[in-house]
Amino acid sequence: MSLSRDFLTQLEQYSELSNREKAVFVEIFGNSKSRVEVTQVLHISESNLSSCLTGIYKKFSISGSGPVKESRLREYLQKRYSQQKPADSSTANIAEDDIDVLVQEIREKVKPSIKEKCGTMRVLDMDQPIELTGERGIYTNVNILEKITGRRRLDICELLQNSHPDEFDRFGLSQVTEKRVLGLEAVQRHNKLMVLGKPGAGKTTFLKYLAMQCIEGQYLTNRIPFFITLKEFAEEFQQPDILEYIVQKLSVCGVHDEKEKAEQLLRHGKVLVLLDGLDEVREEDTKRILRQILEFSEDFHANQFVITCRIASKEYIFEKFTEVEMADFDKE
């Protein structure tokens, strides 16, 4: 089965291939050419072709040997293609103006729900929740460390230089001087972000702030925020996948034809996916949730993703996500 060249070149892994690997990839999986035909068309040797294929399989994390690898990669691509193909012609080639109208329509529908879930927070022993944003809002801008402090490497000389007997704390690591950037700036820089932080660092509040800024038209005004508490999602009785969960939320908000509209929005990269508290997912649910996040973020890679997790609490591998750390608040 031949696959659309447009589909193949939109895959995230495609951008990681060399120019020669890209040509081989398209000829074999897009034009269904044999290995002999590929060597003739591209004027390369059999050994060069084998080297290219090895690189391709590695980028797509395909294991095995010989023809097994090609078969596995073809199955993977066909599965991804079938998920991306619209169910009928009504969802195909939707005009950009139409999708923008749909975005604004859905934003208005979900706005009350977002404000209810993300617009307030409880502080210490206060009897009532208080506003996160607005004139009386208490949100304080957070800073992000682009280098994880727990992975910082210092030699003995640096440790001794940075340590002060009067302020002895973790032998010279108390005053981290890594470069800081504003939280919003970090999100703007990276399409897929994993925000790590200590308990109480403000990870959940930061995600709520992103959702509120988005839905109130201050940030990413052409996207729709979905705030998902991963512990609640993981413990849903029927164990829906992330797409089904989003469809459920749209239905509750009064959106009609919610499944079709959700898929249109996701295919066009119009969603801000906020996944909170990976560390709070139960051990028995972790493997399933990690797999769902990985598959969903690959299938709908054009959208914006932010995940929060406590530092050193989970073992996970999200190769496409950039990891950053919440910086401590200063005295001011």
Describe, in plain words, how this protein is organized in 3D.
With 332 residues, this protein is of the alpha/beta class. It folds into 2 domains: 5-84, Orthogonal Bundle (Arc Repressor Mutant, subunit A), CATH 1.10.10; 94-151 and 179-326, P-loop containing nucleotide triphosphate hydrolases (Rossmann fold). Helices cover 45% and strands 12% of the residues. It has helices spanning 5-10, 19-29, 35-42, 46-59, 67-84, 96-118, 156-162, 183-189, 203-215, 230-234, 242-252, 258-267, 283-299, and strands at residues 120-121, 130-131, 143-145, 180-182, 192-197, 224-229, 271-276, 304-310, 322-326. It has a 7-stranded mixed β-sheet with strand order 4-3-9-5-8-7-6. A two-stranded antiparallel ribbon has the order 1-2. Helix 2 crosses helix 4. The relative contact order is 0.12. Mean pLDDT is 80; it is low at 87-93 and 170-174.
